[in-house]
């Protein structure tokens, strides 16, 4: 029994759960979810899969832990003196930037609705809506609308970026699409032709935040009892 205890201690010293999660994030950033296998992780950590299973039961647990690791700082932060609206904006932009840097997070947050990161994100948003005085009956729908917008738009933005051919610039893509919009039939697409130039010049992050503000405006009105 003593021999086994000493072996366990050496294994803990050599390979921690934190190091495994760190290496998993690196693999996910480089190759996406498909590139994260225990064989690839073992090769990166210079160990066998069995040593990894000592700390992590399966890939599902590893993905959840990697997501929690990337978002831990954001979800723990609580800006002092921030208004509820500013707190929501801060969380929303933090998630947007995290998904932009680690695109695989968007899939994980959307897929694993019960995992801790998603629950803590929903809790953070919900508390701000309570602070705004949103009626109890409207809190679930309001928080859900915010969460779905944040995850949906941030995830789509990251997916669009990944879909571009290597060497293609964002300005080239938007310029070509804007020109296409401007060439559409004015009788059939008057609105799209009118905003074609805005498409070319828009900033994804700023537009994302504008959407958050539009949703917040409606939610704030609920808190004031405005129909």
Explain what this protein looks like in three dimensions.
The chain is mainly alpha-helical and 227 residues long. It folds into two domains: 1-56, Orthogonal Bundle (Arc Repressor Mutant, subunit A), CATH 1.10.10.60; 78-223, Tetracycline Repressor, domain 2, CATH 1.10.357.10. It contains 13 helices and no strands. The chain has helices spanning 2-14, 17-31, 38-45, 49-53, 59-76, 84-101, 104-111, 116-131, 136-163, 170-182, 190-194, 196-201, 204-223. It is flat. 24% of the residues are buried.
Q: What portion of the residues fall into strands of 2 or more residues?
A: under 5%
Q: At CATH's second level, what is the architecture of the largest domain?
A: Orthogonal Bundle
Choose one word for the global shape. Answer: flat
* Main sheet overview: none
In CATH terms, the superfamily of the largest domain is: Tetracycline Repressor, domain 2
* Low-pLDDT stretches: 1-13
Can you count the beta strands? 0
The CATH topology label of the largest domain is Tetracycline Repressor, domain 2
Classify the oligomer.
Answer: single chain
Helices and strands, in order, run as HHHHHHHHHHHHH
Q: How many structural domains does the protein architecture include?
A: 2
Calculate the terminal CA-CA distance, rounded to whole Å: 70 Å
The average pLDDT is 86
> Considering DSSP H and I runs of 4 or more, what fraction of the residues is helical?
over 70%
Computed over alpha carbons, the radius of gyration is 22 Å
The computed structural class is: mainly alpha
């Amino acid at each position: 029994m003593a021999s086994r205890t000493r072996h366990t201690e050496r294994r803990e010293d050599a390979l921690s759960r934190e190091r495994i999660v760190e290496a998993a994030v690196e693999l996910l950033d480089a190759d996406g979810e498909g590139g994260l296998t225990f064989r690839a992780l073992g090769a990166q950590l210079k160990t066998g899969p069995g040593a990894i299973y000592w700390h992590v039961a399966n890939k599902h647990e590893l993905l959840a832990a990697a997501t929690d690791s990337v978002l831990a700082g954001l979800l723990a932060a609580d800006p002092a003196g921030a208004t509820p609206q500013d707190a929501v904006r801060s969380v929303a932009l933090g998630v947007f930037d995290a998904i932009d840097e680690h695109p695989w997070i968007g899939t994980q947050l959307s897929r694993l609705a019960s995992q801790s990161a998603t629950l803590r994100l929903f809790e953070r948003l919900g508390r701000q809506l309570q602070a705004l005085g949103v009626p109890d009956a409207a809190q679930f729908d309001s928080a859900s609308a915010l969460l779905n917008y944040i995850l949906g738009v941030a995830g789509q933005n990251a997916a669009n970026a990944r879909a571009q051919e290597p060497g293609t610039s964002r300005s080239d893509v938007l310029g070509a699409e804007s020109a296409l919009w401007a060439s559409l039939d004015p009788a059939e697409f008057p609105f799209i032709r009118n905003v074609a130039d805005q498409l070319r010049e828009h900033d994804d992050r700023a537009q994302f935040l504008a959407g958050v503000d539009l949703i917040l405006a409606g939610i704030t009105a609920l808190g004031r009892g405005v129909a």
